[in-house]
Amino acid sequence: MSNYKFIAFTFLFAFLFASSSNAQSVKYEQQTINVNGSGEVSISPDIANISFSVETNAKTASAAVKENADKTSKVLEALKSQIGENDKLSTTGYNLSPMYEYNNQTKKSEFTGYKATNTVLVKTYNLKKIGTLIDSAAEAGSNNIRGLTFDSTKRNDYRREALVKAVKDARATADTVANAAGVQITTIYQISPSYNYPVPVYRDFAESKMAAAPPSTPIEAGEITIKASVNMVLGIE
Length: 237
What we know:
The protein is α+β, with helices and mostly antiparallel strands. It has a domain at 45-153 and 201-220: Protein of unknown function (DUF541), domain 2 (Alpha-Beta Plaits, 2-Layer Sandwich), CATH 3.30.70.2970. 36% of the residues lie in helices and 39% in strands. The protein has 4 helices and 8 strands; from the N terminus they run αββαββαβαβββ. It has helices spanning 3-29, 61-80, 130-140, 155-181; strands spanning 32-43, 47-58, 88-103, 108-124, 144-151, 185-196, 201-203, 224-236. Strand 3 (88-103) and strand 4 (108-124) form a beta hairpin. The longest helix has 27 residues, at 3-29. It is elongated, with a radius of gyration of 31 Å. The chain starts with a helix and ends with a strand.
């Protein structure tokens, strides 16, 4: 390597090392406060989603399918007569599968027939009729309710409201810490929001078959709590 190239290489290495050292110095000289904030809003739901299933068992697949189709048609007719103009009714799943039962004597699983399952979802805005819908579906042949959940048509509005509260909470914490430490907040380097929108399940019959439902099944929607949180990194001096 010529003297010229050696000198140039040495200069470049020294420059890169100095730049790296300066970057690290800036990194460590930067003073920040890292705080978290939370906010929540409790609201009354105005939407209910009810998932009904019709399960039928038979020795043959065709018999299970036919019996299921007959019962599901009756359930759909019963639900359509009860839902409102803006409510929605849709099929969300269909399954046909063989059934097996373990024989303790032979120590083997033996084929016993087929099970057909048809699941429909009702989205209703009339929360006062939830009990009536459940009763009607059960009387028409639905023997399984997968779940009942509640929601709000103004979810995004309430979510933003919870986020505003979370930001204010984080900033209040930062101001308290800064005042106690005798420093001033100069800028905001980062804000990371997150949301938690739990939709409560008030009745869940997924694991148990429904008997004939009693008249006027009582359902109380309760409240939904929308939660938001933020992480803020603020510069101080």
